[in-house]
Description:
By secondary structure, this protein is of the alpha+beta class. It has helices spanning 2-13, 23-34, 40-47, 53-88, 110-124, 138-141, 174-182, 223-237, 291-296, 313-321, 334-337, and strands at 128-129, 135-137, 161-163, 166-168, 187-196, 208-218, 244-251, 254-263, 280-289, 305-311. Strand 7 (244-251) and strand 8 (254-263) form a beta hairpin.
Amino acid sequence: MRDLLAALTELRERLQEIPQADERRLSDLKTEILGRKAGALTQILAALPRLEPAARKQVGGAANALKRDYETAFAARERELKHAGDAGGAGAGVDLTMPGRARWVGGLHLVTQVVDEICEIFHELGFTRAVGPEIETERYNFYALNFPKDHPALDAQDSFYVGGDLLLRTHTSPVQIRTLESYPPPIRVVIPGKAYRRDPFDASHAPVFEQIEGLAVDDGISFVDFKATLATFARKFFAPDTRVRFRPSFFPFTEPSAEMDVQCRICQGAGCPTCKQTGWMEILGSGMVHPAVLENCGVDSEKYTGFAWGMGPERIAMTRHGIPDIRLLFESDVRFLAQFARGPR
Length: 345
């Protein structure tokens, strides 16, 4: 009993250490004195059952009182240390009247928004979305589309080959072939997806880019249907008063072929650096489906006709918003992308 009372007296004297202890020392003291397994007070309380009843009452009362004193002292010192840390730490000098910073919550990328909007416009015109593999054979990517076997696009410096006659598709046109082989006319599909070409990564080109193509094949489709459909798209996407024009062009898979321009949205046709002083900006290539393409897919070209087009959503987005460099769409700069932030539908 005397030993226990002496130990309690020594522990009471050590209460004076607490007000001067730093955080680490305070934690060590707490473990040393109140620890559940080896704490000094814990050992004294564990020894109480071995004492006589009278001694047990005297030592137990003193030990419990000292335990309460220690718990109170530890709690007070912990509050002091926390308050000192708040006053002199990272929060010191903060002006609580300043407005908080806006939090970036994420959203659909601008190109994704444009892809969805284009597909929705063509859906309203009766087109269904179709997709296909990104690794294709030369037949689907070139030959069935009426490319000659000596066309430069088949060279390794223009296309990404993965082995044999397999390559990363250079356009989404192979999905047109797969659709024509799988379904009989009438066919109306819009085809979004990634395409890959060995292009330099500069202000107007990227080696990996989004592309949207479309195909309509039916009995009696004419060039008038073709022009009316694409002009309607342009006026729905840009503005009801958008002016469009078609210029003769050449593509192996269409005949006749045309490139479609819209009046520059920046200068309104007056001429500016963005449109190279022409007042017009090209947005897509298009034309009537070449009869050879239909025949390659087992479709009677004497009975059916159709039209097809292809456009780059990145360039469409640049045209609409006056973006001067396509690389801005790939850099993941939140300060730039936040201008166009829109949540998922």
